[in-house]
Specification:
Layout (H helix, E strand, L loop, with lengths): L2 H4 L14 H26 L2 H25 L6 H22 L6 H29 L11
Helix pairs in contact: 2-3, 2-5, 3-4, 3-5, 4-5
């Protein structure tokens, strides 16, 4: 499975065997799990351990939802920009719901500031991970579309 990522042009070769659904699961788990850890580590380095604990409330469900959506989108050829956009949007939804629906009282300003930074980091992590999965051939290409 991981050899597909190490070969040059592995996602573009028509002669390469397509990914089975059983092979997609570990790739998606490792990719989005790594994105989750990277975002939480970034939050820990930028702010504090307590901030990272609170960020995990939004990051973990968002990345799990993004991984499930990515798995569902990996079965039919779709436009790669559509895959990138929907996976990133779904990953950011829990953060948006938490920030907009909870009353943080006197901490409202700091929560909004940190939520904007966290949203940017999450979006960047998801775009990178999903792009790597597209390049690796996990998502099938449309006819005439190269990874």
């Amino acid at each position: 499975m991981m050899l597909r990522f190490s070969r040059a042009g592995a996602g573009r070769k028509a002669s390469a065997p397509p990914w089975t659904w059983q092979a997609r699961i570990p790739a998606l788990i490792f990719a989005y799990g790594g994105a989750t850890l990277a975002v939480l580590l970034g939050e820990r380095l930028l702010h504090s351990a307590m901030s990272a604990n609170y960020a995990a409330i939004a990051v973990v469900p968002g990345e799990i939802a993004a991984g499930i959506l990515a798995f569902a989108l990996a079965f039919r050829p779709r436009a790669f920009l559509f895959v990138l956009g929907t996976v990133t949007l779904v990953a950011l939804l829990p953060l948006g719901v938490i920030v907009l629906s909870m009353d943080f009282g006197e901490y409202r300003a700091i929560v909004e500031q940190r939520a904007l930074i966290l949203a940017g980091v999450m979006a960047l992590a998801n775009l990178i991970v999903t792009s790597l999965l597209i390049a690796g051939g996990v998502f099938p290409a449309r006819d005439g579309e190269a990874a």
